Structures are given as C-alpha cells and as structure tokens.
Amino acid sequence: MAEEAGPRGEDSWQRLDLWLWCARLAKTRSDCARLVAAGALRLNRQPTDKAHARLRVGDVLTIALHGRVRVWKVASLATRRGPPAEARSLYEDLSEDGA
C-alpha cells in the first residue's frame, strides 16, 4: 500500500498532516493532525477532520489559524521538512493579504 506515495506519477498524493508539517504550519506532525481534527481546515472547500486525507498537487486548503484565514494552493508534494524557504515553495498563497 502506498500510504505516502512519492511526488511523481498521476496518482501521487501525500497525507494531509505530513504535508502541513513539511510546509511548517506547526512544529510537530501531531500538532498538524490536531488542527485537522479540530476542524480548522477545509480541503477543496470541504470540511475535513481526517489527518490522513489524501492531498494532491492543485488542491486548495483553507486554514483558520490564529484569527486569520489562509488559502493555500498546493504547488508540490513534500519530499522532506526543509528550511522555511523550501516550505514556502510547497504552496501558493491565495489569501487576500498574501502573508
């Protein structure tokens, strides 16, 4: 079973909590999973509470965090949790404030 498929191929996907951790949304992967379970995210406009949801390139995440709403379009799947500059390359920020 390909739980965390590689970033290549048509059926490439990644667990939502893992991708959020690699994108540096929170310090730990379990913190990312808790955010998802708390209902702080929408995946392609649909509420999700499943940290294991499949995330693909082109998906849009709506994230309610720290009194702000961010909208991110997934630009690529993560291969590792790298430095902040690398994390920012994983998504395109579609939020109005762009921050």
Description:
The protein is of the alpha+beta class. Helices cover 21% and strands 25% of the residues. The protein contains three helices and seven strands, in the order βααβββββαβ. The strands form two sheets. Strands 3-2-5-6-7 form a five-stranded antiparallel sheet, with no helix packed on it. A hairpin with a 2-residue loop joins β5 and β6 (68-74).
* Largest sheet, strands/sense/barrel: 5 strands, antiparallel
Number of helical regions:
3
Which radius of gyration do the C-alpha atoms yield? 12 Å
Helicity level, as a percent range? 10-25%
From the structure above, extract its key features.
alpha+beta; single chain; two-stranded antiparallel ribbon; disordered N terminus; 3 helices; 99 residues; five-stranded antiparallel β-sheet
